[in-house]
Amino acid sequence: MKVLLFGTGGVPHSTPKRSSLAGIRQIRELGLDCMELAFVRRVAMGERTASEVRRAAEEHEVRLSVHAPYYVNLNSHEADKVRASRQRILQAARVGWLCGAQSIVFHPAFYHDDSSEIVYERVRGCLVELMEELRAEGNESILRPETTGKASQFGTLEELLRLSKEVEGVAPCVDFAHLHARTGADNSYEEFAALLELIEGELGRAGLEDMHIHISGIDYSSAGERKHLNLADADLRYVELLQALRDFEVAAWSSARVPAWRKTLCLCRGLIAVWVSTSRGSQGFCIWQLVTEFSQLSHYRAGLTSINQLL
Ligand SMILES: [Zn+2]
Ligand SMILES: [Zn+2]
Description:
The chain contains 10 helices and 14 strands. The chain is an alpha/beta fold. Mean pLDDT is 81; it is low at 256-296. It binds zinc ion (2 copies). Residues 146, 175, 178, 214, 256 line the site of one zinc ion.
């Protein structure tokens, strides 16, 4: 039996008064089921709000994850920047845990002039220590370094799979738009299937049954990611991607951000989530985001219906 779940990344644009609490209610109002708390500038939420968020999420049965601040670089050559980066990840994980979120997504590092291997060792060392600290606090967060959209950024799928195998509590966040933007490839059924095979080969079935995925349209150049776009305005072949995810019986969840100016258009980011109950009884999420534009709720609901049929 497969059950579909729907959700958004960040507070839905259609939320009247934008706050995490209002966002959770709006998720339910829109018939969605999950949301990624976007702490992308800083982690400003206090303990009291976090426990309110947790209660609201439980009450409305909205599942939460966290995106840590963008200002993270575990390979900075300035020691205080590495320290600050580590603190940002820890803070996101601590507040996320209070909110009832488990997955903490972040962009791990830049290569600068260092080799992939050197950066890998630095990032791995940091993550081992961060995990130790979190576990010692009783925090069961999963740290999810994200596949990044530029060749200058650490975060190929191969690097993240290796980290996931070597560090307890680490798993990848697979941003398919970023993977596509890095090289211009990874944009066909065969390529998506190859990526999923790679994940299964490295992490086993468990790797496919506990995925965290970002999907959106993306503008890119030879240097990689420029900015996120709505799927309708971009070249990502998301129907083929959805088909590959279906064929591999992937279970996961996701979010992505659209340009801020779109807030004024009363956008609702449609995030599609699929809950997969396997015949073996294990359950997981499969969520993916269709960044779609709906000016009215009725359009949105019609879109949701057609997406359901697509799936
Ligand atoms: Zn991200
Ligand atoms: Zn992303």
